[in-house]
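Following the same procedure, backbone shapes were mapped to integers, yielding the entry below.
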Amino acid sequence: MHIAVAGNIGSGKTTLTSLLAKNFGWEAHYEDVESNPYLNSFYEDMQRWSFNLQIYFLNSRFRQIIRIRKSGKAVIQDRTIYEDAHIFAPNLHEMNLMTTRDYQNYRDLFELMSSFIQPPDLLIYLRASVPTLVRQIQKRGREYEAAIRLDYLKRLNERYEAWISQYDIGKFLIFDVDSINFAENAHDLGMVIETINAELHGLFKQ
């Protein structure tokens, strides 16, 4: 079983991934942030490092998915390969932070990779407004994220909404992070767990 958590920067993906892994006994696969050799450079100079960063993430997530499917375990994944391809890369291209040549190269590689993988059995999308994202980004205090621009987050949010509205490759749930606090409120976390449990029982019943 493959569960994946999707959402913008600061929406709470890693926190929810950890909480759900602990509750359900799932194996957690996290986004490669700490050892990513391009992330700091990207936020310092997006135009120079955008292609390198996106290729790194594409490769990392493709390998993750292969490991998940081979493991035969119940796994929850922090962010999906689809977000890179449908949200982050095209956004960088639209903002003239990735050349058309590089973007096309990226898209061709993604199309090839996606033909070898299956989508998650259940996608959990965390919806959050820009003020909520900013508050949570500031709260966790990652130095390289201090330079993230508001217009960048806003553009990403718009793309996330467009993507989830057309998502048709599997089951999905949406949780509004503006109105719940699963990180600090046990009742809210319980509601999220109950909703996911109900969806999974329907998804995997014989």
